[in-house]
Design goal:
Number of strands: 0
Shape: extended
Radius of gyration: 17 Å
Helix content: over 70%
Oligomer: single chain
Length: 87
């Protein structure tokens, strides 16, 4: 993880920075624990494979939607000139 942090600190390309931040977030302990718990909860009804697949898609779509909305809100707040420390 340290080499990712040093690469992130030295990066001047926005696309690379966004990718590295996403990678660091995906590898952090909190989302990993959440994903393991969600997989356990979704997969408990192992007899119905279609339902497990559908619930997995709903879980994935929910994560994508919530992160997208959070990003849009933060972009709008920061473009308005607000400081992150005020939030």
């Amino acid at each position: 993880m340290e080499w990712l942090q040093t690469l992130l600190d030295n990066s001047t390309t926005p696309l690379l920075t966004a990718f590295l931040l996403g990678l660091l977030t995906a590898l952090s302990p909190c989302p990993l624990a959440t994903n393991i718990a969600a997989i356990g909860f979704i997969g408990k009804n192992i007899e119905n494979r279609k339902r497990i697949f559908f619930n997995g898609l709903l879980y994935t779509f929910g994560r994508v939607l919530s992160y997208t909305l959070l990003g849009v809100i933060l972009i709008l707040v920061l473009k308005g000139g607000s400081s992150m420390f005020g939030i």
